[in-house]
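[job 4471] stage=fold_predict status=RUNNING
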Amino acid sequence: MEREISAGGVVVRQMAGHWEVAAIEPPRDPAPAKSRKTSQKVLLALPKGLLDPGEKPDQTAVREVKEETGISGSVVAKLADIKYVYARSWGDGQRVFKIVSFYLLRFESGTIDDISPAMRIEVKRALWLPLEDAAHILAYRGEREVAQKALDYLETHPQFRV
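[job 4471] inference complete, writing structure tokens
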């Protein structure tokens, strides 16, 4: 089984006393006409991607956040490694064992959704979500758990407050 190593970021900022997290909505393939529903649920995820050669996971997390959301963040702590198996929906359909390391990042600068036109292949839009909601509305269970870990970290580390 092929292996993939990725990293992603849980970028947070505090607005009006509440924590927000940067999320992305990947583009969705149109459903076939026979199975098309009148309203498709919006799929929201955390920014993440494959490590480039020679890159450390925390560096990948920062880079992927910038590329997929348009914002910059600085690493605060590693939150978790998520491990799962998926079948490629393109090409050979091969099963892949994937590990994604997620890092908590503090928002530094930039404008959410200010991304390159080429990145629109991977990201339909980037947006801020209330962090307490992310643990319930992100599409993937592992990412919902990571969002909860970020919230727990912020509640137990008062020095992080801005």
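[job 4471] summary: The two ends are 44 Å apart (CA to CA).
[job 4471] exit 0
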